[in-house]
Each structure stands twice: as structure tokens, then as C-alpha cells.
Specification:
The structure is a single chain. By secondary structure, this protein is of the alpha+beta class. It folds into three domains: 197 residues, 4-Layer Sandwich (Aldehyde Ferredoxin Oxidoreductase,  A, domain 1); 181 residues, Aldehyde Ferredoxin Oxidoreductase Protein, subunit A, domain 2 (Orthogonal Bundle); 159 residues, Aldehyde Ferredoxin Oxidoreductase Protein, subunit A, domain 3 (Orthogonal Bundle). Helix content is 42%, strand content 13%. Strands 2-1-6-3-4-5 form a six-stranded mixed beta sheet. A four-stranded mixed beta sheet has the order 8-7-12-9. Strand 10 and strand 11 form a beta hairpin. Helix 19 crosses helix 22. The chain is globular.
């Protein structure tokens, strides 16, 4: 094989054994890598019904045939497991030197099974693995952990780790690298913690065998040059995703007070221009020439790396209008290893829940919008599960509301908190959140920019088709595995990617081929969900109730809300276009068309396939 190594390393943490094995070559062709490869591994080897925080869960780190190579933002690793937050398939991508070093180690994936009896760091050196005691690291924050490991293993080692949130099994703990790189929103950091795996370190010394290295480098250089020549590049380098704050305010989609409103009076205090005035540094993932990490000094004078999602959900959504205060909570989340987005939706739920008396057994007085000091303290309690309130909220808003009530204002889909776009007046984006394969995440179909320009209030078949189109394209970035931002933010031509794949692997993919692979991966992930849930209902593909029942009261779109009956028609269009039945289950015809006939006998145990 060219471009792929065709190998994965299986690490049994219980026995502390590692072996390198070949996986079927057809998996590379059918799924490309990254998300697709991880999903196939989980389908084949994850024990159905496994406890997400038990030793039978599998943790997969996977790359694709473009990962870690010179090229447009290729420094990504996909992390996947059964989610302790949602109970279904969970994944995310992390920008990290691990991507480069996995390729140099000749590994397309690493699978961790079992659980260590004591904290360990797994160290992979080429094709060998050994285990270092991590008792001295357990309890340390992610920044300190990585600093110590870099002193031990070198500046260029690939390193990912968890913080106290992962150790304490916070349901939305993430995996961290390079201080501000975070991935695995559905609690993949908690999976690492349950396995007592504090960190993974990789060093490789092989040269990745490409089909045509010379032409690959020529094409990669063309892409990198095009990125820097795009008209939007200079402003992107100034503000990155933080420019979205002003746009979201203007279009009434800026999440405010737990997604109750789409505009925020104090938005100027947290927008991209404020960030520019505070910026002290800019960071990015490896192999990136359009760094998105804008670093400011927080209210304590400590560096904090910001982007739109964490600023909106820890800012306007909590009623905080000073960027230095937002940065302080954000920095704490990164150090503790918590998903900033889920932290935002959990804290905003807690404020609303406390104000209607649902948390009277946990707090002496109601939590308040804009109370930076109080919310910072609660965030620390969550990471350590150090109080009754911290322990409750470590279950996320979806878990906490099942214990105390208030699920009608938990802003989640399938258990995963909604990303930073209010959808009272955006049915297409609501559909994108509801049908994302991991729960309510924007990364799979950021349709809202298109939607506000094309009859935003429509519930049309065209809109459902646009969601699927974006899910296909964005899904392939998860499998390449590279960052989508060069295409999304500065308009890098998608034509580069089939050429890069060809020069890497020798396989001639068209975008139609890649769309089919994306559809195959989506159907496979849906099958994992069906197996883990023991069935399926279209209710799982519904956006939060608040957007239907509580209209906006402020801004130019006051009075707007989603229409339940029209949304169901939109969902029907989506299922029809995907070739799924009206409950959201892929049909036998669709599974056959996608080469997924092997799923049918297992799915027949849980649903009636049409």
C-alpha cells in the first residue's frame, strides 16, 4: 500500500502488551482513514453494550493518508470511542504533532483496550511500545503534564494527555495537546481516564511511502500558496474564527442566556476587534499556515487561546461581556481537560436550573448570569468533582437534568451540548445539529452561513440537501484526516484534495467517490448508534425543545421559533435523500449500494429494516 501503512497497533492496557497487525486493505479504500477507519474498527471490535467507562470500551487514535504530510493543515489525529456522554459513537480531532509521528511510526491507527491498574503513559517508539508509570503526573493539569513529558521525550515528540477532568471521569472531558488543542467533545478524555491512561507519546523514524512524492509536494505547495493568496487571508490572520461574534450578533444567532436569545447587548466586549486589541500570540496545529489560535492574557494575566465557539458559549451564553473574564474560564477548561463548549452549555443550564429552584439542594443561592467569579469556581468544582454541585454538573446538562429535572432547557442533542449557534430562526442548522453523527456539533455541517443568505425560514428539500452536501464534504476532512478551515474560511479549492490523495495513495478518487465514502461512513456510524441504543427513533434526531417552545424576545427576529411540524417535514426530506426510512434507519437498498451488507444481520436484531 502507498499512502497508508496498512498497519495498526493494538495496545492491551490490562496486560500491558502491544502488537502491530495489518488491517484489511479494503478498509482503507472504503473509508480512507481517520473517522471512517475508526468507525469500522469500533463496529468490528467493540463489544455491544460495553460500559463506556469500563475496560471493554475501545479508544482509537486514527490518521488518514494526508495526515502529518506537508500540505494544508494536515496535523490532525482522530480520536474515537463509545461516548460516556451520549452512549453512542463519539469522536473528535486534535491538532497535534502526534499526527506527524504516527505517520513516521508507520501506523494508521492505535487501539487501546482494557484498563491499567495504575496510571500510565503509553510510549510508542516506532513499532514498539512500553509503559511508563504516571503516578507523578496523575492529578496534574494538561499544561504541566505536557511540559514534563517534553523534557523527557523531546521537543518534537507527539504527545496527547488528559487533565483532572479526564481522571475524574467528567462526561465531557477531552484530550489535550499543545496547551490549546482539544478534541473529543463526547467525553473521549474520560475514556482515557477510565483506562488510567494519562498520556500517549509517539516518536517515529520511518519515511511515509507515497505513490508519487515529487508530485505530491508540488501539489501541496500549490495549495499552501493558494491559501496565502486568498482575499480573506489577511483578515483571517487578524481575527480567525473570532470574526464570527459580530456576524452572529448581526444575524441573530449568537447564543445568549442558555440559547434563549440570538443577540447579546455586551457583544462588543467579546468580539474579534476586542480580541485583536488584546492579542499577544498566535498558535496553530502542525503543518498549518493559517493559524486559528488567538492568544490573549486572561483576567489573571495568564495566556489563553480563544476561538469563536468557546468565547460565545462561555461569554454571551453565560452573560459575560468581558473577554479577559471569558478567557479565564476558557483557560481553566483547557488546563483541566474539559470541552469548553459543553462546559458553556452545562453552566448555562445550571444558571437557568438554579433560578427556577432545581438546584436548591446544591447551592445556597441562585447562580447568576455574568457572575465570572462564581462560574469560574463552579468550573473548577466540575473538573475535580469536588462538591455536590461539581459532581452533578460533571454529568453535563443532559445527565444532570435527568437527576433533578429541567431537561426542557438542556441544550443538547443525543446528550452532546449544542455548539455556538442559536437556531430559533435557522431550521437548517437545527437539522445539522440534530443529525450530526456525534450529537449537536457544528463541525459536520456548518450550514448556517448559507442558510441566512437563502430563505433562512424555509423548511425545504433544498435545505436538507445542502446539509447532506456539507456533511459529505466535512465528513471527508474527518477521514483525510485534515482541518477543514482552509476550505471553509479562506476558500481553498476542493479540487486539491483528490489530487493530493492520488499522489499519496495512487488511488484516483473523484468527489463523487468521496461523497459515497462519506455516506458509507455516516451509515456505519448510524449502525453503531442503533446497536448501542438497542433500536432507533426519529426523536433522537430532534433539536432542543427550547427552540420550538420559547420564541426569541429580543432583536430583529423577536418572536421567531422553530415549527415542530415543519421541522418533521424537513427531517423526512433528509431521510429520503439519505436513503433512510422515516425513523432514520438506513434501508437494505442503501446499505447494499454502499457496500455495507455485512451490517444487515446485526441491525436486524434491533430494528425492522425496510
Amino acid at each position: 500500500m502507498k499512502g497508508w501503512s496498512g498497519r495498526l497497533m493494538w495496545i492491551d492496557l490490562t496486560r500491558r502488551e502491544a502488537k502491530v497487525v495489518n488491517y484489511p486493505a479494503e478498509w482503507a479504500l472504503m473509508y480512507v482513514g481517520g473517522r471512517g477507519l475508526a468507525a469500522r474498527i469500533l463496529w468490528e471490535y467493540l463489544k455491544p453494550g460495553a460500559d463506556p467507562l469500563g475496560p471493554d470500551n475501545l479508544l482509537v487514535l486514527a490518521v488518514g493518508p494526508l495526515s502529518g504530510l506537508p500540505g494544508p493543515s494536515t496535523g490532525k489525529v482522530q480520536v474515537a470511542a463509545k461516548s460516556p456522554l451520549t452512549g453512542g459513537y463519539g469522536d473528535g480531532n486534535v491538532g497535534t504533532m502526534l499526527s506527524n509521528e504516527m505517520r513516521k511510526a508507520g501506523l494508521d491507527a492505535i487501539v487501546f483496550s482494557g484498563a491499567s491498574d495504575k496510571p500510565v503513559t503509553a510510549v510508542i517508539d516506532g513499532s514498539k511500545a512500553f509503559f511508563e508509570p504516571a503516578d507523578d503526573l496523575w492529578g496534574l493539569d494538561t499544561w504541566t503534564t505536557e511540559e514534563k513529558l517534553r523534557k523527557r521525550y523531546g521537543r518534537f515528540a507527539g504527545i496527547v494527555e488528559i487533565g483532572p477532568a479526564g481522571e475524574n471521569l467528567v462526561r465531557f472531558a477531552t484530550i489535550i495537546s499543545q496547551e490549546g488543542r482539544s478534541g473529543g467533545r463526547p467525553g473521549i478524555g474520560a475514556v482515557m481516564g477510565s483506562k488510567r491512561l494519562k498520556a500517549v507519546v509517539i516518536r517515529g523514524n520511518e519515511k511515509t511511502d507515497l505513490y508519487d512524492q515529487k508530485d505530491y509536494l508540488v501539489q501541496a505547495t500549490k495549495a499552501l500558496v493558494e491559501i496565502k493568496g486568498r482575499p480573506g487571508y489577511p483578515f483571517w490572520m487578524r481575527q480567525g474564527t473570532m470574526a464570527t461574534v459580530d456576524w452572529a450578533q448581526e444575524t441573530s444567532v449568537l447564543p445568549t442566556y442558555n440559547f434563549s436569545e440570538g443577540v447579546f447587548d455586551g457583544f462588543k466586549g467579546i468580539d474579534g476587534f476586542t480580541m485583536e486589541s488584546m492579542k499577544v500570540e498566535q498558535r496553530g496545529c502542525p503543518n498549518c499556515n493559517m493559524n486559528c489560535g488567538n492568544v490573549v492574557l486572561d483576567a489573571m494575566g495568564v495566556k489563553s487561546e480563544l476561538d469563536y465557539e468557546n468565547v460565545a458559549l462561555l461569554g454571551s451564553n453565560l452573560g459575560i461581556d468581558h473577554l479577559a473574564d471569558v478567557a479565564m474560564i476558557n483557560r481553566l477548561a483547557d488546563q483541566m481537560g474539559m470541552d469548553t463548549e459543553s462546559l458553556g452549555t452545562t453552566l448555562s443550564w445550571a444558571i437557568e436550573a438554579s433560578q427556577v429552584g432545581l438546584l436548591k439542594n446544591y447551592v445556597d443561592k441562585s447562580l447568576e448570569w455574568g457572575d465570572t467569579k462564581g462560574l469560574f469556581e463552579v468550573a473548577g468544582q466540575i473538573a475535580k468533582r469536588s462538591t455536590g454541585l461539581g459532581d452533578l454538573l460533571a454529568e453535563s446538562s443532559s445527565g444532570a437534568c435527568r437527576k433533578v429535572g429541567g431537561c426542557e432547557f438542556s441544550m443538547d442533542v443525543k446528550g452532546l451540548g449544542v455548539s455556538a449557534y442559536d437556531c430559533h430562526a435557522a431550521p437548517g442548522m437545527a437539522l445539522a445539529f440534530a443529525t450530526s453523527p456525534i450529537g449537536a456539533h457544528h463541525k459536520d455541517a456548518w450550514v448556517i452561513s448559507w442558510e441566512v443568505q437563502h430563505d433562512r425560514f424555509a423548511y425545504s428539500k433544498e435545505k436538507a440537501a445542502k446539509v447532506i452536501e456539507l456533511q459529505r464534504i466535512r465528513g471527508m476532512f474527518e477521514s483525510f484526516t485534515t482541518c477543514r478551515l482552509p476550505w471553509v474560511e479562506v476558500g481553498l479549492s476542493l479540487d486539491h484534495y483528490p489530487l493530493l490523495l492520488y499522489y499519496s495513495t495512487g488511488v484516483e478518487y473523484t468527489w463523487d467517490d468521496l461523497y459515497a465514502i462519506a455516506d458509507r461512513t455516516y451509515a456505519l456510524i448510524r449502525a453503531i448508534w442503533i446497536r448501542e441504543k438497542g433500536g432507533w427513533s426519529r426523536d433522537y434526531d430532534m433539536p432542543p425543545a427550547k427552540w420550538f417552545k420559547r420564541p426569541l424576545t429580543k432583536g430583529p427576529l423577536a418572536g421567531a421559533h422553530l415549527d415542530y411540524d415543519k421541522y418533521n417535514v424537513l427531517l423526512d426530506y433528509y431521510y429520503e435523500l439519505r436513503g433512510w426510512d422515516r425513523n432514520g434507519v438506513p434501508t437494505k437498498k442503501t446499505l447494499h449500494r454502499l457496500g455495507l451488507d455485512f451490517l444487515i444481520p446485526e441491525l436486524d436484531k434491533y430494528v425492522t429494516l425496510s
